[in-house]
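queue> holo job accepted (iron/sulfur cluster)
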Amino acid sequence: MAEQSANAPGAQRFIPPGAETLDELRTAAADCHGCELYRDASQTVFGRGDESARVVFVGEQPGDMEDQKGLPFVGPAGRLLRRAVDDAGLDPASIYLTNTVKHFRFELRGKRRIHRTPDLVHITACRPWLVAEFARLRPAVVVVLGATAAKALLGPAFRVTRQRGELLPWPDSAQHPEDFRGVPVDSAGKRADTPPAQLLATIHPSAVLRADDHDKAYEGLVTDLTVAARALAT
Ligand code: SF4
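queue> job finished
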């Protein structure tokens, strides 16, 4: 296992100048060494989905199955999320799914790879990919899934438990809006123009899977996503 490094060069230098499409970004991200997480993970797990999606979902990081398949949200949590999206009145075919951090962070226990929450150094290093995705997708609503993604976008003081299901202005509600607005999104320093959008935080679908009262947790997720669906309809 690679040890965690205190510093990381960051992903920006791996974003080719003039990369206009998500496919170009995805190809470039496969070679990202912006932090040390690439060393132990199987591959970069970039976002996927509808390129004209008006709703972008942001999770924490790929899990074990996503790492093996190279696709985000393909495990049980992803299946549950798509069902909740459908039940909330959003079209599961018209969404884009991505993560705050694009490589799986884990520790080995015997042969098992156990999830480890990414640190701030990984979140910060990987942010250029997320900002580049936002710049290309220009979503109307960003749905943040779980505490790590919420902290990455909204800052450490944000509590999903208190503020879930609330529509917030984006990127104005970010702890540092300048991290997401008019920032360089490729290695040549091209700046992103981020149109105003809205953001909504909710629990991660994996938290629903772990919940003692599964039905109640699922219902809460659907209720939150219904707020996003209504925002799109207005
Ligand atoms: S986690 Fe992000 S910054 Fe780190 S190597 Fe992977 S893609 Fe690059």
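queue> Residues 4 and 36 are 7 Å apart (CA to CA).
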